[in-house]
UniProtKB/TrEMBL annotation:
<dbReference type="Pfam" id="PF23598">
    <property type="entry name" value="LRR_14"/>
</dbReference>
<dbReference type="InterPro" id="IPR003591">
    <property type="entry name" value="Leu-rich_rpt_typical-subtyp"/>
</dbReference>
<keyword id="KW-1133">Transmembrane helix</keyword>
<protein>
    <submittedName>
        <fullName>L domain-like protein</fullName>
    </submittedName>
</protein>
<keyword id="KW-0677">Repeat</keyword>
<dbReference type="InterPro" id="IPR032675">
    <property type="entry name" value="LRR_dom_sf"/>
</dbReference>
<dbReference type="InterPro" id="IPR025875">
    <property type="entry name" value="Leu-rich_rpt_4"/>
</dbReference>
<keyword id="KW-0732">Signal</keyword>
<dbReference type="Pfam" id="PF12799">
    <property type="entry name" value="LRR_4"/>
</dbReference>
<feature type="signal peptide">
    <location>
        <begin position="1"/>
        <end position="21"/>
    </location>
</feature>
<feature type="transmembrane region" description="Helical">
    <location>
        <begin position="290"/>
        <end position="317"/>
    </location>
</feature>
<keyword id="KW-0812">Transmembrane</keyword>
<dbReference type="InterPro" id="IPR050216">
    <property type="entry name" value="LRR_domain-containing"/>
</dbReference>
<keyword id="KW-0433">Leucine-rich repeat</keyword>
<dbReference type="GO" id="GO:0005737">
    <property type="term" value="C:cytoplasm"/>
</dbReference>
<dbReference type="InterPro" id="IPR055414">
    <property type="entry name" value="LRR_R13L4/SHOC2-like"/>
</dbReference>
<dbReference type="InterPro" id="IPR001611">
    <property type="entry name" value="Leu-rich_rpt"/>
</dbReference>
């Protein structure tokens, strides 16, 4: 089997197509075809889009063997650190890391000068690694739900990302501070912040290219009339905050999809209360209907039985009366 596989791989060398993506999953085995192919030329033929490694040593070896990888997906629960060799992936454009015991990123990550998208989900960061600020080509950054610790510090280096267009922060404490959204990120077109922010910094209203703004499930109490400065804004979600009204200036945003959803926490709570009350009443009615149905089901046969008994007694009485009269 291995011999045939080896022959097929050697034949495929003549039509070599470099790999575009690699998946490193939580596994205990190495994909056989990819393993053999790496041992021959250090690159695969485009078929090995999913590879599995049981430890960081194998993973480190694999990624340094192919510097043409454009996408890298890491999902290894037992991995405690990202090997410095990741910096050798000079063509990498997309990197996702999730469900790992990693607490920091290596400084070598800064070598990924072509990285455009970075997705970090449920790692064990205490803070956002400053090295992210060195990814000069980064256009999309998503940091969601760290498994153990909420992020409590936003490094200034993050504000160097001049080409950043989409930013999503979920599970970040204290990011209501003004410096979290500096006006230096002028190209930002999509912003999503999910946590417990109470106020929006003035800098947010200077993001002239902002097209989508998602601020649901926060503790925002009001929106500044300065929102009219966001002339390119198309989508705005303010659901589940403490906002009771929107400024009139929001009507000046010609590209904005209306109506804007700003249903506040009190309204949502009242809605849930009404729903629970209606559900309770419906359950009570259903219970009463069931009881009524049971009573009817029991009563009808009993009534019929009583009628039959009465009828029989009446017949018997009449029979007795007739007999007595004859006597």
């Amino acid at each position: 089997m291995k011999l045939n596989l080896l022959l097929n791989i050697i034949i495929s060398i003549f039509n070599l197509t470099l790999v575009n993506s690699i998946n490193v999953n939580n596994s205990t085995s190495v994909d056989e075809e990819c393993q053999i192919f790496y041992s021959i030329i250090g690159k695969n033929n485009g078929k090995c889009h999913e590879n599995s490694f049981s430890n960081t040593g194998s993973f480190s070896f694999a990624i340094t063997k192919d510097d043409h990888i454009r996408e890298l997906h890491l999902n290894m629960e037992k991995m405690t650190e990202i090997p410095p060799s990741i910096g050798e992936l000079s063509e990498l454009e997309y990197l996702s890391m999730y469900f790992m015991s990693v607490t920091d990123l290596p400084v070598e990550l800064a070598k990924l000068k072509k990285l455009k998208e970075l997705y970090i989900h449920r790692l064990e960061f205490f803070k956002i690694p400053p090295v992210i600020g060195e990814l000069s080509e980064l256009e999309k950054l998503t940091i969601r739900q760290n498994q153990v610790n909420d992020l409590n510090e936003i490094p200034e280096e993050l504000f160097k990302l001049k080409k950043l267009k989409e930013l999503c922060l979920d599970g970040v404490e204290n990011h209501h501070k003004a410096e979290i959204i500096p006006s230096s990120i002028v190209n930002l077109s999509e912003l999503e912040i999910l946590n417990n922010i109470k106020t929006l910094p003035d800098e947010l209203y200077q993001l002239k290219n902002l097209k989508e703004l998602y601020l649901s499930s926060n503790e925002i109490e009001e929106i500044s009339p300065s929102i009219a400065n966001l002339t390119e804004l198309e989508k705005l979600n303010l659901y589940d905050n403490y906002i009771t009204e929107l400024p009139d200036s929001i009507n000046d945003l010609e590209k904005l999809e209306k109506p804007v959803n700003y249903q506040n926490k009190w309204e949502i709570e009242e809605e849930y209360r009404r729903y629970d009350e209606e559900k309770r009443k419906a359950d009570e009615k259903r219970s009463k209907d069931i009881v009524t149905s049971i009573v009817i089901l029991i009563t009808i046969p009993v009534v019929i039985l009583v009628i039959l008994i009465v009828t029989c007694l009446c017949c018997l009485y009449k029979h007795c009366c007739i007999t007595e009269s004859r006597v």
